[in-house]
Amino acid sequence: MQKVKFEPSIHTFHIDFMNHVSNIVYIEWMEIGRCLLLEAAGMPVPQIMQQGYGPVLVETNIQYKQQLKLGDTVRAEVWISEMNHVSAWMEFRFYGPDQSLAALGRQRAIFIDLQTGRPTRLPETDRQRFQPFIAEN
Question: Which Gene3D superfamilies does this UniProt record tie to the protein (predicted)?
Fold first, then answer.
């Protein structure tokens, strides 16, 4: 199983009143990771939207383990833990400068038909593109 790895930056505007990375920034990083995963699978968002469907998030969960602060180096990774014909669960891990786990994230996305707004089955050829990123149980 492949993971998509990336290193998000921490900027001054990411810091909240408690002097650590704000919770909303993790959502932004998860969006970056999700788009990178789609690109790695050969399905960038503009391309799949041209095919008449697109991904929509229906659930996000984050568990914070250690705070990140301005100047910290962050390493992130994303992969798929479950996938069916309409939806997928993506798993995220964020590591701090000493490689300790800073946060765990999980998102569920569904594919919708852009004309009807209803969930749609992902074509099998497109579904197979995600196979390298799906964790085996």
Answer: Hotdog Thioesterase (3.10.129.10)
What's the token pair of residue 115?
């004309």
Q: Helix (H, G, I), strand (E, B), or coil: what is residue 19?
A: coil
Quick: pLDDT tens for 59-91: 999 999 999 999 999 999 999 999 999 999 999
pLDDT band at 137; cut points 50, 70, 90: low
CB–CB of 77/30 below 8 Å? no
The model's pTM is 0.94
3-state secondary structure of 87: strand
Please give the single-letter amino acid code of residue 42.
G
- Name which of 85, 89, 90 is nearest 120 in CA terms: 85
Amino acid at 121: R
Distance CA 114, CA 54 (A): 7
